[in-house]
Amino acid sequence: MTPGGEFGFSAATMKREKRLTKRERKEQSPGAPREHAHIHCVACGRHLDAEEFSAAPPTAKYLTCEHQSRFPACVACEVAARRLIAEHDRTGKPIQQAAAWH
Predict the structure, then answer these.
(1) Across 16-43, average pLDDT
(2) Is 99 strand, coil or helix?
(3) Residue 76: pLDDT over 80
(4) Contact 45, 98 (CB under 8 A)
């Protein structure tokens, strides 16, 4: 390069390619289909199968907090789960979820 010479291209021509987010890369990857979600009741920690939410009558349900996050709970634990969610709404802290068990 000679003194006072120019490169012949500007910063505008040197833009980077748009990169995909991690989520977009996961969606496009040709891997095995994702397994079913591993769901546990927030109140008692019991493992919940996805079919329990749509059974007749349902034995599990999703409860929603004030900012629209969904928490799974057994129908038998609904009162305790609602109490945990109310505390979460009041304090803004993560829900005090029970330890998971199978």
Answers:
(1) 78
(2) coil
(3) yes
(4) yes
